[in-house]
Design brief:
single chain; alpha+beta; two-stranded antiparallel ribbon; 4 helices; about 30% helix
């Protein structure tokens, strides 16, 4: 594993003297994970304030609730309705495009 030292205000490889970052890497800026805080809310069932993700998960389990995005749909969350998709600027899922085109043709006629 390479060892880096500070020489003339720049981090360089101790053995070779090559810079730790290339010019391209330096131009990108620092890379860091996105961290989002938990937004406290009042439980709609009990009215109790939920302040942490752990409290949220426990509260959901206690009341037999699931996150909205975890709900299974009959067609697996795929878009089937052509008019609905067009209104929202979306595309119909690949396996439903033929039926959507047929439905659109029927509406245009």
């Amino acid at each position: 594993m390479a060892t880096f030292v500070l020489r003339n205000g720049e981090m360089v490889n101790k053995a070779t003297g090559e810079p730790m970052l290339t010019d391209e890497e330096r131009a990108r800026g620092p890379q860091a994970p996105q961290v989002m805080g938990f937004q406290p809310y009042n439980c709609p069932i009990t009215g109790k304030e939920i302040r942490t993700l752990g409290q949220h998960n426990a509260n959901m389990a206690r009341h037999g609730c699931v996150e909205y995005n975890e709900i299974a749909t009959p067609i697996g969350g795929k878009i089937k309705n052509h008019a609905w998709a067009r209104k929202r600027g979306l595309q119909v899922s690949e396996e439903y495009r033929d039926t959507a085109t047929a439905a659109k043709g029927a509406l245009d006629a």
